[in-house]
C-alpha cells in the first residue's frame, strides 16, 4: 500500500559507496522536485566504479558523488530514514530515539560481495539497482499525470 511521500528522506548503508547512493540517485530522479533526498553510510568508502557504471546505463550520473558518514550530514532532520544494511539500521534506530523520524529497513544485497568476471559483477550491481528502483516506486509512487 502506497503511503504519503515524506518531505525529507535519508538513505543509509554501510559505506555510502553503492546501495545508498544508488537509492538516493533513483529517488532524486523520480521525486527530486518533491522530496529532499540525502544519503550516507556508517563509514565513507570510495565511490564504487561498478555502481557508477550501472547507474550510467540508465542515464544517472553519480560519478561526482563524494561518500559521507552520518556525522558529515549537513541536515539531521528527516521525515524518513531508509536503511539498506543491518548496521545502518542499528545506527538509525539509535539516532532517532530522540527525534520524530520514521525508520524503514530495506534489507538490500551487498553487490560488492560478488566475485567473478566484470560482467558477472556488473549483473549483481544491476540487480541491486533494479531492486532499489522497484522498491522506491512501490513505496513512493509517481504522481499521476494531470488530466486536461
TrEMBL record:
Coiled coil: none annotated. Residues 7-142 form the Phosphotyrosine protein phosphatase I domain. InterPro entries: Ptyr_pPase, Ptyr_pPase_sf. Transmembrane segments: none annotated. Keywords: Arsenical resistance. The keyword tRNA processing does not apply. GO terms for biological process: response to arsenic-containing substance. SUPFAM superfamilies: Phosphotyrosine protein phosphatases I. This is ArsC family transcriptional regulator. It comes from Thalassospira profundimaris.
